[in-house]
Design a protein that fits this description.
This protein is of the alpha/beta class. It has 2 domains: about 160 residues, Rossmann fold (3-Layer(aba) Sandwich), CATH 3.40.50; about 35 residues, no CATH class. Helix content is about 35%, strand content about 15%. It is built from 7 helices and 6 strands; from the N terminus they run E-H-H-E-H-E-E-E-H-H-E-H-H. The protein has a 4-stranded parallel beta sheet, sandwiched between helices. Helix 2 packs across helix 7. The model has no long low-confidence stretch (mean pLDDT about 95).
Length: about 210
């Protein structure tokens, strides 16, 4: 059996001494599934959606850990990249014109529009995975549950049985107080907590004994 995990740095295992300690691999051991972890630092929900659509049909269980709603994916001649309001200007190392987009997005973004896009990604992936009879669960890495006031009613379409912690909890709440790295990523204990939360939920759904 095969598990696909997709997310940002909290799925990737940023700041861990060994990325094999990231929650997808901990979960894989708990349920005896082989694991593909497509989490990458700073990735947007557009990246997450694209990776699920491109890869999910080859897997038996898909776990989607949504990134912050305001992250956006762009592409230029150098490649794809993510920015968000207030993003650091490190992108200039790759192509200097990216700083113009960072500055524009920082000054002129619309949070309600960005939150709507986040909800649309959730709803579209739900439909896609259900259409293909795929078992999946979703969860929130950080931040999105705190801005529900931006919702225009789309949240009513979210399948709450498959979204762990919706609408109030995220990895940040689950791992509060556990050790973290210098850049704020929870470490081994936090990944064990996240894997345990997912394990208990899929057991509740009856997918494992």
């Amino acid at each position: 059996m095969r598990l696909l995990a997709v997310g940002d740095s909290f799925t990737y295992g940023e700041e861990l001494a060994d990325r094999n300690s990231a929650w997808p691999f901990v979960l894989g051991k708990l349920i005896n599934y082989s694991v593909t972890n497509l989490g990458l630092p700073s990735k947007s929900n557009s990246y997450i959606t694209r990776q699920v659509v491109e890869n999910a049909l080859e897997y038996d269980l898909i776990v989607i850990a949504w990134s912050h709603f305001a992250r956006l994916e762009f592409a230029d001649s150098v490649g794809t990249y993510e920015i968000w309001p207030g993003c650091s200007r490190y992108q200039a190392e790759f192509s200097k014109w990216r700083t113009h987009i960072i500055d524009y997005i920082t000054l002129h973004h619309n949070d309600k529009h960005l939150y709507t896009q986040y909800l649309m990604n959730i709803i579209l992936l739900q439909s896609y995975l259900k259409q293909h009879n795929k078992r999946y669960v979703m969860l929130d890495a950080f931040g999105n549950t705190k801005v529900r006031n931006l919702d225009t009613g789309l949240a009513q379409q979210i399948e709450q049985t498959c979204y762990i912690g919706w609408p109030d909890d995220s990895m940040m709440e689950w791992t509060y107080g556990s050790p973290s790295g210098a850049n704020g990523h929870f470490l081994e204990k936090g990944h064990e907590i996240v894997a345990g939360k997912i394990y208990e939920h899929i057991r509740y759904l009856g997918w494992i004994s």
